[in-house]
Amino acid sequence: MTRAPTNLLAVRSLLLAHLDVDPNTDRPADLEPAEVGIIGDPAHRGGYHCGSDRVVTNDYSVVESSRDRNGLTLDAAALDVGGFEVRSGGRTHTLPSFSIWCVGQCAADATDTRDIREIIYSPDGTTVKRWDRLGKRTSGDSSHRWHTHVSFFRDAIKAGRDQRPLFRRYLTSIGLIEGDDDMDMTAEERQALIQDIAAGVLNAQLGRSGPSLGNAVQTTYVQVAKLAAATGQDPTNAQAIVAGVLAELSPERIAAAIPSSMAKEVADELARRLVA
Predict the structure, then answer these.
(1) Hey, where are the domains in the chain?
(2) At residue 181, does pLDDT exceed 60?
């Protein structure tokens, strides 16, 4: 029968140790044991919450990746995390902010996220989104408004690889565990990243005939994801992040982002607009 693997049980224990603030009382603000699940209920068939005894024909959790096909065992390969609300570091941290942070780390390709296949979550308790490393899906059912689903590639579960580092970094980043969050970004690094994003978008827009902002965003997606991860923004809302980047640039920084090969062309266009 489908089993809960040791490495996901370790993640479950880590989250409960720090987010179930009052383990002796069942209250909405805490992450309770019943809200952190690994194995699907007895009727559950197909998907990462099931092991080899419960997968179905053409199960997406098996057939879409060689990592899953080669790693299929009786172990489940998913973790559900329910709602919580904790105060730490002068801020309130909730399931949506946790989910956005995790998705940001995945989109930025942080080393400790590379065994994660997908995250299905809600950034606001209303809209359901899916970050999919394989790029095959973008949403999920409405139950993910109040819980976040994390799927892991089955070969990582089979190998027994420790999946706690990402979640430990989250707990460190919000001040519940002491230590350094190696994804922290200095003000100088943030400004340099903003400049790189602006340059990438402007280059894309100037280098093509009438490209949309969406197309330009794709050229700098990894940088956008890194900025989102550092600032706690939802990386799937890339256009809004880029629009914010461009809005805070001074004329001097916009000019610095324009490639020298196009400077004269841009100057001529600006002159034309001023006299139009």
Answers:
(1) 6-173, 187-275
(2) no
